[in-house]
Structures are given as C-alpha cells and as structure tokens.
Hints:
Strands 5, 6, 9, 10, 20, 21, 22, 23, 24, 25 and 26 form an eleven-stranded antiparallel beta sheet that branches. Strands 11, 16, 17, 18 and 19 form a five-stranded mixed beta sheet that branches. The protein has a four-stranded antiparallel beta sheet with strand order 12-13-14-15, with no helix packed on it. It is mainly beta. It is rod-shaped. The chain has helices at residues 2-25, 369-401; strands spanning 35-42, 58-66, 73-75, 82-85, 89-93, 99-102, 108-109, 115-116, 122-126, 140-141, 157-165, 183-190, 196-207, 210-217, 228-231, 246-250, 258-264, 269-271, 276-282, 290-295, 300-305, 310-316, 318-320, 328-331, 334-336, 345-347, 356-359, 361-363. It contains two helices and 28 strands. The chain folds into three domains: 2-69 and 368-401, no CATH class; 74-147 and 299-363, no CATH class; 157-282, Tick-borne Encephalitis virus Glycoprotein, domain 1 (Sandwich), CATH 2.60.98.20. Helix 1 (2-25) runs antiparallel to helix 2. A hairpin with a 4-residue loop joins strand 21 (300-305) and strand 22 (310-316). Keywords: Bacterial flagellum, Cell projection, Cilium, Flagellum. A flexible structure which links the flagellar filament to the drive apparatus in the basal body. Residues 164-285 form the Flagellar hook protein FlgE D2 domain. Residues 83-132 form the Flagellar hook protein FlgE/F/G-like D1 domain. It is found in: Bacterial flagellum basal body.
Amino acid sequence: MSFQQALSGLNAASRSLDVIGNNIANAGTTGMKSSRAEFSEIYASSVGAIGGTNVGLGVDVGAVSQQFSQGTLSITSNDLDVAVNGSGFFQVQAPDGTKQYTRAGNFKLDKSGNIITNTGAALMGYPTDAKGVRQSFDMQGLRLPTGAPIPARQTTKMAAEVTLDSSAVVASSATPPTPLQTYGTSLTAFDAQGLEIPVGLYFTKTANNSWEVRTSVNGSDPAASTPIPINFMADGSLDPATPMPTLTLASPNDPAQTFPVTLDLSNMTQVNARFAVSDLTQDGYTAGQLTGLKIEDSGILTATYSNGQTQAAGQIALVNFRNAQGLAPVGSGNWVETASSGQPVRGAPGEGTFGQLRAGALEESNVDLTAELVNMMTTQRAYQANAQTIKTQDQVMQTLVNMR
C-alpha cells in the first residue's frame, strides 16, 4: 500500500509543480490570474469500519483553483490600453462567435476600425449617441470610424457674448456708419458641405441704451445689411423684449443656396468699460478625420477629429459572475462561462460593484514570484520525501524477500 500512497504523492507534487511552473511562466502576461493546486486526502470506505482505524490511501489533486485578486496597474500611455481597477471582466467575441471574458486590456484596431484583442476577438460594448448617452443595453462590437470622415454639419445657431461700452458716442444718423466707426467682431459659419462662411458683426450706438447690429456675410458691405435694433435696461442687461434675429447665409459655392441661422445675443451687456468679446460660438463644423481616442473611467470612447470636434463612439461594457472561480480558461487570457460560474451579470464601469477603467494602463499578472519560488521548493521537498517513501518500502520488501 505504501507504494500506492507514495505514488499518489509523487503525482500530486508533479501536478503542483505544473501549476507553479505555469504561474511563473506567465508572471509577465497581461491580465493573467495565478492558480494553485488544492489537495485532498484519499480514504477507502468499507461497511462496518470503525472510525480511526483506516489508513489513508494517499493524496489527490482536488482542484486547481484560480486566484482573481487585483493585479498591479502598469502605466503604458497607449490610448488603446485599458485596465479594470476593481471587479469585472471585458467581454469579447471570438472570430467563431464564442463569448469570452478577459482582464487583458491590450486592445488593437483592425483595418476596419474594430477594437480587437491580439487573437482577433472583438471588444463588446454599448451604443451611445455623440454625447456619450447610452442608447441600448444590447451589446455590440465597438468600432471607430477610421475610414470615411465624419460629415460636415451646417450651422443653425450662432451666439455672441459681448460687452458694449455705455460711454460710447452716439453715431450720427446723417450717413450710415462704416465698420471703422463701430465696434466689430467676426466668426465663421459652415454650410452643408462644410465650406466656411465668414460672418461679421458690427455694433453701433444709436441712442442711450440703444444699439444696432449690422452683419457682413462672405465679405459683403455691412452698411447694406438690415440693421438689428437691440436695447438695454438701466442696469446694463439686455432688454428681455429684444427679439433674437435670424440671419440668412448663402453657400460660397452656390449663392442661391441659402439657409437660416439664429443669432443669439441674449448674453450681451452694456457697462462703462471697453468693448470686449467674451465668447463667440456656432454649432456647425467641416468634415473631419479621426486623430485620437480617449477612454473615460466610465468606459465611454471619445473620438477626436481633425476639425476640433469630439464625439462618443460607444461605451465599453463590463460583466461579472457570481462564482468567478467557476470560469473555464481557454487560453490567450480568456475565460468562458460554465454551469459553476453562473450566467454573466452585465453592467458598465463604475456602476454598482463594477470597477472603473484606467486608460493608458494594463493590469499585470497577479503572480507573486517570491511566493511561487518558495512553493516550488516546498513541493520539491514533498516530491523527494514521497520518492524516499518508495525507496524505504522497497528496502523493507527486499528484506522480506531475503528472509530464509
């Protein structure tokens, strides 16, 4: 019997060394989770046996348990590197359609702009609008528009935040004022094709607390434009009764193609100070190519374009399991669900018990090399001791054989 007991010990120690060796080999693998061999003793059961008299039959490897403790975050400064700081897994879809889960966030872009892993599995997430508001809980592969540029947007609204000088001299009404006799500023609007349309705004004082605004479009003479009257209250704020004007802009390619643009002047003030322009805004832009990507802690993908615009391109999803140790490893840092793990619970970074994301970083392996080397030496001693048991039993058997 000692032979069988010692043999089981050799097998268990060998299996433990396999696990330790795998941990050490993957000490530098991104998102890798260490494992440990868990042993269980073996006893023979017999009817009527009295407890305490049975001798054990050896040892068996009861399980190889994965350790899902947090790994150290390593800063990489790569835009597509992302680490989970807390609980949760990335969900990816393998090329064969299999749903898999990983902690390795070293993602790449393929030629179509899909965010993928090193094995070609697609990173899954939620669709959002351009402002990053989630539109659905149905997961889909995340993709960046790396091919065609985002289309141009025609200007529909302009706003000017201007401070007018209350001590300015009232302009003579004998002749129309010229730009040199007025305060002025300009901004750029865009037509439906993204072509620039310069728009000038000129402010002339017509009476105490009263001004008029003239416009210049595509370099036209502001004196020929229709004056827009604006009035101020005694405290210098804009008279609420002042209507917001609508301008008619024309495309530079085809002057016959016109479109209306609302001019918001509600933030204008009149004080005893020099003329100042605090802010000029408009909501149009030209077409733009993708130039950069930022991943927020919440998982929102924000794409930056050459026209200065930023748009959300989706949100990275996270999933978790009631029993993460029940996941089955399938290689390349991925796991698949099993009956023991339970079904995945889906969410987003920072929601509920899910951790947040850290862009420009990767989660290192949680392998403790010092502990693994100590375990390896301990297991080696156990292997040697079991081998010594076989040797001793062999000597005992040899003594019996040699008896006369």
